Amino acid sequence: MAWEWHRELEARQITLAALAFLVVTIGGLVLLIPPYFLQSTITPIPGVKPYTALEQEGRDLYLREGCYTCHSQQVRPFKTETDRYGAYSLAGESIYDRPFQFGSRRTGPDLARVGGKYANSWHWIHFRNPRELETRSNMPAFAFLQETALDTSLTRRKLEVLRGLGSPYSDAEIANAEADARAQMAKVVESLRSGGITLSDLEARSEAVALIAYVQRLGRDLASSGAPLASAQVGGAR
Amino acid sequence: MAVVRGFALSALVWGLVGMLVGLLAALDLVWPELNQGPFHFGRIRPIHTNAVIFGFTLGVVFAGSYFAVQRLCRVRLFSDALSRIHLWLWNGIIVAAAVTLLLGKTTAKEYAELEWPLDIAVVVMWVIYGVNFFGTIAKRRVKPMYVALWFWMSTILTVAMLYIFNNLEFPVSAFKSYSLYSGVHDANIQWWYGHNAVGFVLTVPILGLMYYFLPKQAGRPIYSHRLSILHFWSLIFIYVWAGPHHLIYSPLPDWAQTLGTTFSIMLILPSWGGMLNGFLTLGGAWDKVRTDPLLKMFVVGLTFYGMSTFEGPMMAIKTVNSLSHFTNWTIGHVHSGALGWVALTCFATLYYLIPRLWHTTLWSVRLAEAHFWTATLGIVLYVTPMWISGVTQGLMWRAVNPDGSLAYTFIETVSAIRIYDMIRVAGGVLFVSGVVLMFINVIRTIQQGSPEIPAERARIVPGAAPAAAGR
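Structure tokens for the assembled complex are given below, as produced in the milestone run.
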């Protein structure tokens, strides 16, 4: 084999660098572009809606606290997984998730379908100190979220940005973002109180309330849409 | 040379800090009471990964590549001003990254957590590095570019592409933004980035270090130039395709997952090409390995490189991945590469650089030897329990009773691996204490040396490129 051509290449900086760059772009183009045109990844699933103002705030707290470092939101298509967590995840379910939260490590369980599994009051106690409910848990206590008031000064702006990126919020949802968030908060608080939790004023408008609203939403869209849950037809990824 | 000294020392500091934070994260998992308010695992873990990848590893790459490029090209760096801006901007970014991540300012995409203002600073810093590095090569007095330079040039171009495209986001406020991509598309592009951060930050530039500093330390030319050519081009081409192996059994289309698996397996060949070229370079110099802790680090580093580049492709096979994914096995795999290959090679590079940058000899070779053994034992003690706990947890998640119901609750699988998480802490303690030994050694070396020696200029010229064999 003749290697002379390469010796010439080694003397030409621009050519070698340009070639090296060309070589690394190919894989990216093939993997990243087609999914934007495939039915399985762009077809919305009926019933999947953007998060409410409060849920979106809760989701941003989930991101801020790095929950994704210990919890996945991606159920794999195995019987043992669907038995444990519920129907496997479909591409169309996460189209309003910016960023995605599939995760990479399950130090704790998958949360893709945790919504509705536990009562709001359970979550309140669990966030305060997980070991009150499960002595073997190694999850950090998030009591400080119950002592920090939720900041809604950016809520409206957040929904506006998300609408610009493709989440179909109505004008009313954007105009009333803050009021909607407060209203949903009041509902969560009411259910917490009826669940036997005594809340101070601060606790009733704390970040933990938003986080509970988000966690309770996870995986509920498919369930409420009546779509065939573990059916291979939906999403069509497999 | 001042800038190389700056990068070498900062890298060492960020390495120690980043590894201590990693140790804290490991302790948090075993004793959750250690999480204090906002200072909990979820915020600390990104600080650990960012500090060791972008603080420690990149710092050594900057130091090593700036040191080597001047000798390989027989010219000074393109611009002293750019070099200084590069050094301070990069250090500033690492500090800002630690502070903002601790405050919870994060995009929540692994290894790309920094919010948009810092992303912009990173891109500016990277362009400065690129201009300075490419500019130095452009004015070189040695026409052929040595293989290490190809690896570093390709690092600069590829990382720029990956970083910019994965971090495209729309700002909401000064430190909050939303990704331009959503759901499965976001996952796809994130793991294209994430996997190639491993490829083009933790592999390709480290191979550059190996190609320059291993032959220099061994006093032997690289075994085969042709092998370098083959494995360089195939490595950079194939690496980019392997990202979807992080998304096996996810909603990503099957064909993309299969491509990820296929290219991951293909990746064994170019990876081992690099490992073999390193090993065979030592042919005839193996006696030196007995007495030289730097060569020991290179050798064990290459061994771990070979091991983890075999393990990775195995974990990319669907059947294996169904067991290993989401478990500690992944953490073990990453650390066998990051501690075994990356850190050991970086340590050896720093041990090579620091005495030369301060015009003296290493204060204590025996202490470096002790560092080598502590580090190696630490890695074994870290990686082995991660393998065991990964397989344990994976098997427990899928275990079923005779009637088909799940055999274990999730919390039972958490308790089952606690003991291994404890052993991992011990491995981490050993590894970090090795770095402390290195710290002492480096400080004493700097104390006995001096950055200013009039003969410095004269010393640079004889430090020529390791000659390539087989040309």
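Chain A has a mean pLDDT of 92. Chain A has two domains: 4-32, 48-225. Further analysis is deferred to the final report.
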